[in-house]
Design a protein that fits this description.
The protein has helices at about 55-60, 95-100, 100-105, 110-120, 140-150, 170-185, 195-205, 230-245, 245-250, 265-270, 280-290, 300-310, 315-325, 330-340; strands at about 15-25, 30-40, 45, 70-75, 80, 155-160, 190-195, 205-210, 215-220, 275. By secondary structure, the chain is of the alpha/beta class. The N and C termini lie close together (about 5 Å).
């Protein structure tokens, strides 16, 4: 299912809109029907397992890749991207790497190096590290330098491709706090790719859950709690609640939650302040599939109810629930064929 796009308000005008984005690599369709809005002063997290098209979508948003179909609308003057790998220039020293974007903007060398030094201190890089080349820096130090380089140009939109993956727990917390300051006080908008549910819950105002084959939006979760109020205990508690949600478990091919039905999990999530946007039909279909059809109802009809509600062939875990409940086991592709072609 491509969950419906929540409307942007006048007070939160989008800096980036993706409308009807499809993409193919050769004959393989990797993205289908993606609709996204990223607004000022907010973080939108793309969450999903490996291979669901998150990084491809980020590259489309950055203008590094033209979509096969659909429209990308932008309303910002500067953007910066932080990749999974720091991608520092090996022949440039630390401060010159941080100041690279400032050099491109034509700032005098003395001014840009002074700004780079201040940013280096902000991300925890010591003065004795300033003359070092990337090969002389640890992986975590390179990641900090890449983040400082992105902040240096004061972007309106920050594009993050799992930039915290190489950081230890303490440094990750520091970088989280730095990003929160940029978003809450600097009005920066951020589009963040992650497969880490904790990062998504800690940093995102909206979590967009993606599934593969082809990559598409499976669910959207709105988290209105201000970033500054999300301490460790809050993050652990809400990440656990989100993990119990049936659509999250379905997207990551996790077994059903121990409580056996998704209703209580979804209700607890809503009570905790996380809003599932446009998810009710899919949740109901997964619940019905897990509970099993009436004895006379064939497995194909159960799969059909899920396909009709989602607009897509069932994902693998939903198909397993159908097969376990039905009198005749049927895999997801066969169920989809029984209902005719379906698109996610």
């Amino acid at each position: 299912m491509n969950a419906p796009l929540p409307p942007a308000t006048a007070a939160a005008a989008p800096v980036l809109e993706l409308r009807g984005i499809d993409h193919r690599f050769g004959p393989e369709k990797v993205l289908e029907g993606i609709e996204l809005q990223v607004v000022r002063g907010e973080v939108l997290a793309l969450l999903g397992r490996s291979g669901c098209g998150k990084t491809t979508l980020l590259r489309i948003a950055a203008g590094l890749l033209a979509p096969s179909d659909g429209e990308v609308r932008v309303d910002f003057d500067r953007s910066a991207i932080v990749f999974q790998q720091p991608s520092l220039l090996p022949w440039q020293r630390l401060l010159d790497n941080i100041a690279l974007g400032l050099k491109a903007r034509g700032l005098p060398r003395r001014e840009r190096l002074a700004r780079a030094a201040a940013l280096a201190e902000l991300v925890g890089l010591r003065p004795e590290d300033h003359p070092k080349y990337p090969a002389e820096l640890s992986g975590g130090m390179q990641s900090r330098a890449a983040l400082a380089r992105a902040f240096a140009i004061e972007p309106a939109l920050l594009l993050l491709d799992e930039p915290f993956a190489a950081l230890d727990v303490g440094l990750r917390a520091e970088m989280h706090a730095l990003l929160v300051r940029q978003v809450e006080h600097g009005g920066v908008a951020a589009l963040m790719v992650t497969h880490d549910l904790m990062d998504a819950v800690r940093l995102a105002h909206e979590v967009v859950l993606m599934v593969p084959d082809p990559g598409r939006v499976h669910a959207r979760f709105r988290i209105p709690t201000p970033l500054g109020e999300r301490d460790d205990a809050w993050v652990y508690r809400h990440a656990a609640l989100l993990t119990a949600h049936p659509l999250v478990r379905d997207a990551f091919s996790l077994p059903p939650a121990p409580e056996a039905t998704s209703g209580p999990a979804a209700q607890r999530l809503a009570a905790a302040g996380i809003l599932a946007l446009g998810c009710a039909p899919v949740v109901a279909a997964i619940d019905a599939a897990a509970a099993g059809p009436a004895p006379a109802e064939p497995a194909a009809a159960a799969a059909g109810s899920l396909s009709q509600a989602t607009g897509a062939a069932p994902t693998a875990s939903a198909a397993r629930a159908i097969g376990a409940a039905a009198t005749q086991a049927m895999d997801a592709p066969a169920a989809a064929r029984a209902q005719g072609p379906a698109h996610g």
